[in-house]
Specification:
By secondary structure, the chain is an alpha+beta fold. The chain folds into three domains: about 110-190, 2-Layer Sandwich (Alpha-Beta Plaits), CATH 3.30.70.260; about 195-290, no CATH class; about 300-470, Aminopeptidase. It is built from 14 helices and 16 strands. The strands form four sheets. Strands 9-10-11-12-13 form a five-stranded antiparallel sheet, with helices on both faces. Helix 6 packs antiparallel against helix 7 (about 215-220) and helix 7 (about 215-220) runs antiparallel to helix 8. Residues about 1-20, about 75-110 and about 460-475 have low confidence and may be disordered.
């Protein structure tokens, strides 16, 4: 058993006892002095010529002194903390204090901006605290925070609200000084305020309702990235050699996942490596798509043409391949060559690819008797989006192409695309007129008779063309 030291009990100092008689003599002298002064003042008041005046003046001075003492005591007893120093016997702390955050930095009337930031810190205690302290010094609010553990560090992903006058370069320098590296910063908007679990559930719901949503859901989940769906078999029927293991492959800035319809989905993000957490989320979405199988929404719109005929516009899928082949047989060689830019005999080979929801969305137009007379395609082409139209000859110049194009552009805006383009021939005046009828900024590029028209899309959703207006506008 370890002996514990006995507590120290302070004892009276002998030197203190030696000074007690000096203090008693001093107090006794003060008492005799006070008696002498009081006797002198009483004689002066009683026998002097100004005695009553001195007595009144003394009373007034005494009342004034008492009032001043009461006012001073009340003022300092109700002072807020920090105005009056309170002696606690402790030295003021000068290091390790929390940073001062200016009140009202983001109050109404102070402009702010949202940022998405990702940085890597050391996997050790205090590294995240240092980063948060640096952000607080710059008056930056942390709205959301996610951590992605790695082998040799931790990737922290923030949604920040910063003062509008805080430059991005300064924010990056502050983060670097606090120990962050490989920092990535981009502007955010109000859509990013949704918490991550809610956003992932929303993307899963969209994917469950429509197989064409999978590429869009992956892009919204992972941010700016390029997504390519590479089939296992080419349009000519030859194996492409593209495949991926069931569990997928993660290689820094590239992930490869097995496509449920065959082939591989390749996702690339050169500016920022993927984390294991992001890889697991993407793989979960792809597995959900595989379990649900092929599916497309069954909604449809019935429209009336100027001459009185009714048509139905609906989503198309691979169940419509045979009907699309029959439409090809009714189209002229000129119509097919303007659409596919190649040998007319190869047109049927593209239909399985074009009608697959993995590569985009397709709208079909059918008559009251159920015959397919037009197809409109919105195709995901990596970072870009292509639109293409095919209208049977006998149904051209009735506004069907413009109706389909307007609806496809509305779908592209809803999907968050920045632009759409179409590849046609310079002699295809009908397609040129339909693109001009969108009322959007257009860019034209002509190379050896091939015309590429690119339309820059608005950031806010635009409604599809009004049927009464678009159908009255005949194709030219």
């Amino acid at each position: 058993m370890t002996d514990m030291p006995e507590p120290h009990v302070p004892t009276a100092s002998p030197r203190a006892h030696r000074h007690h008689w000096r203090r008693d003599v001093t107090e006794l002298a003060a008492l005799f002095m006070a008696v002498a002064v009081a006797d002198g003042l009483s004689n002066l008041v009683a026998h002097g010529p100004d005695g009553p005046f001195l007595l009144v003046a003394s009373a007034i001075a005494l009342v004034a002194s008492a009032a001043f003492h009461i006012w001073w005591a009340r003022r300092h007893s109700h002072a807020p903390p920090g105005e009056a120093a309170i002696d606690t016997g402790a030295a003021p702390a000068t290091t390790g204090a929390a940073p001062t955050v200016h009140a009202g930095a983001h109050a109404p009337g102070h402009e702010s901006q949202l940022w998405r930031m990702r940085t890597t810190v050391r996997d050790e205690p205090g590294s995240l605290a240092s980063l948060c302290t640096a952000l607080a010094h710059s008056r930056v609010d942390i709205l959301t925070l996610q951590t992605h553990p790695l082998g040799d560090g931790t990737v922290d992903e923030f949604l920040l609200r910063a003062p509008a006058d805080l430059p991005a370069a300064r924010l990056t320098r502050e983060v670097a000084a606090a120990g962050g590296h490989d920092t990535w910063l981009e502007r955010a908007d109000a859509h990013d305020l949704v918490d991550t679990p809610t956003r992932v559930l929303s993307l899963a719901t969209r994917t469950a309702l429509d197989a064409a949503e999978l590429p869009l859901a992956l892009r919204q989940l992972l941010g700016r990235c390029s997504i390519h769906s590479l089939p296992a078999v080419s349009v000519t029927g030859r194996p492409t050699g593209e495949s991926a293991p069931v569990e997928g492959v993660l290689e820094a800035t590239t992930m490869r996942l097995r496509d449920p319809s065959g082939g591989v989905i390749t996702i690339e993000r050169p500016h920022l490596p993927f984390t294991p957490t992001e890889f697991a989320r993407a793989r979960a979405l792809v597995e959900l798509d595989a379990r649900l199988g092929p599916r497309i929404p069954r909604s449809q719109d019935v429209l009336t043409l100027p001459e009185g005929n009714e048509i139905t516009v609906r989503r198309a899928g691979q169940d419509d391949v045979e009907a699309a082949k029959e439409m090809h047989e009714r189209c002229s060689d000129r119509t097919l060559s303007m659409r596919y830019h190649g040998p007319v005999g190869d047109a049927d080979r593209y239909l399985n690819h074009l009608l697959s929801p993995r590569y985009g969305r397709t709208l079909a137009v059918q008559t009251a008797s159920g015959r397919l007379v037009a197809l409109g395609h919105l195709l995901w082409d990596g970072d870009e989006t292509e639109v293409a139209l095919l209208v049977e000859d006998s149904w051209q110049r009735r506004g069907i192409g413009s109706e389909l194009l307007g609806r496809l552009v509305a779908l592209a805006v809803e999907a968050g695309c920045e632009s759409v383009y179409t590849v046609t021939q310079s002699s295809n005046t009908a397609m040129v007129a339909a693109m001009r009828g969108l009322g959007l900024p257009l860019d034209y590029q002509i190379e050896e008779g091939t015309l590429v028209i690119t339309a820059r899309l608005p950031r806010t959703p635009v409604p599809a063309h009004e049927s009464a207006q678009s159908l009255e506008r005949a194709e030219r």
